[in-house]
Amino acid sequence: MFVANFIGRANFMRAKVLGVDEKAMTVELQGKKYELERRTNWKVGEEGMIMIRPETVRIVDAQKGDLKGRVKNSVYLGSSVNYEIIVSEEVFRIDVQDPLREKIYNEGEEVGIKLNPHSLHILKVS
Fold first, then answer.
1. Which domain holds residue 41?
2. Do residues 43 and 124 touch, judged by C-beta distance below 8 A?
3. Which of 1, 2, 69, 124 is least enclosed, having the fewest CB within 10 Å?
4. Number of domains, the chain
5. Residue 16 and residue 45: Cα distance in Å, rounded?
6. Pair 88, 72: CB distance under 8 Å
7. Percent of the chain with pLDDT over 90
8. What is the pTM of this model?
9. Which residue, among 33, 71, 49, 59, has the nearest Cα to 114 in the 3D structure?
10. 51-110 residue pLDDT tens
């Protein structure tokens, strides 16, 4: 995880491996299943940390998200909006580019978080 933090901002969430084959693996993250590209040797039952970059996540209306949370903070920067969302008592960061094309959510508002499985990276923890 040190390398991932060194490269830039990222969100980390605990996940469990549910299935593994030659090319893919299924993980459970916050009660939902995701199929990821298999990058290293994993075994069913192992736990790891999913790394999620803030710019690879979409913020949507609460009923449309994979995860649910509440906006703790939002900073409008003109060409982007940086959000801090509370998800299961953890702060989840989302960077929305071109906010004029997206709805802008207010502090305290309940929101959904839409994850792209191709942007989820599982890391082993020691």
1. 2-124
2. no
3. 2
4. 1
5. 6
6. no
7. 71
8. 0.82
9. 59
10. 999 999 999 999 999 999 999 999 998 889 999 999 988 899 999 988 778 888 999 999
